[in-house]
Structures are given as C-alpha cells and as structure tokens.
Amino acid sequence: MKKTLLITLLSAFATFYAQAQYALPVGGKQLNAGVGFSSWGIPVYVGMDFGIHKDISIGGELSFRSRSDNFNGNRGYYDFNDNKYRDYRFDYLVFGFAFNGNYHFNYLLKIPKEWDFYAGANVGVYFVSASSTYSTIPASSYAGVGAGIQVGGRYYFNEKFGLNLEFGGGFPQSGGKFGITYKF
Fold it and tell me: Is 108 left (phi over 0), alpha (psi -120 to 50) or beta?
C-alpha cells in the first residue's frame, strides 16, 4: 500500500512539474490582444493560440492598421495646368489575417513557468484600401499573401494573465507587437 501511494504521489508531482514547464499545455487556449509597430502604421491585433503538443502551438490572428502619407510643397503632385505643386494625402487601411505555428522553448531549456519563449512562422493574407485627397488619383484596393517568422516571449503574472512581446519579419504587416495574454 505504501509503495502504491508513493508511486501515485510521485506520478502526480511529475505531472504537475511537467505541466509547469510549458506555458500552453496540450488542449489549452490563450487569447492575445494588443498594439504593435511597423512601417505601415500602428497595428491593433487580436489572436488565439491552441496548444497541440507540449512544445508546439498553432493559432490565428486578425489585425488592423491605418497610415497616411502627406505630400506637401515640392513633394506634392505637380499640376501642369497651373504649373505648381499641389498638396495631397494618401490614406491606407490594412486588414490582415494570419495563421501561425510556434515552438515553445520552456521544456527544452527548463525555463521557469512564469516565462514563455517561442519562435515560429506564419502565413496570411492582407487587404489594403488606398485613397487620395487629390481628385485625379483614383482610390484603389489590393490584396496579397505573405509569409514570415516571429520570435517572442510572455511573462505570466499568474496562471491566467500575462504580457507578451513579439518581433517578426517577412510578412508585409510584420514588425513588432506588445499586448496581453489570457489563458483559459
């Protein structure tokens, strides 16, 4: 009886310890939201990740950003009818949806459970709407597909809430982002 109790306690301890090594267990979900930075404006994003292996998560993300480019003085549009430069502005709205996969280094590197360090890849689509204040430049829109990589980390204040920071490149909307994470 003592031997069975000891084995049961050791198994329970090993299971608890193993789950403490990775931030998103198999079957776990986490919601991420925040703001970012890029050459295409300040993105706002929301995403969801799913734990599919003790070291691997997959997920999706929606993002939105806007940007305006002002052309003034001799950077403006040259109007040949009036022989002078005209000021104008381009406005862009960008929507994106990306799928991602990440490898979490917590178990491999024996990182404390409060931290989550990961790296991965993403693929997604983006939609851009562009308009101008100058009447001879028509509004336009276009879409594209992109792929990129990311590296990031999270710090959890408790079992549910944390902060995240991520840097990426390659995808047309990549850059960096900072936000919150909620696990459930």
Answer: alpha
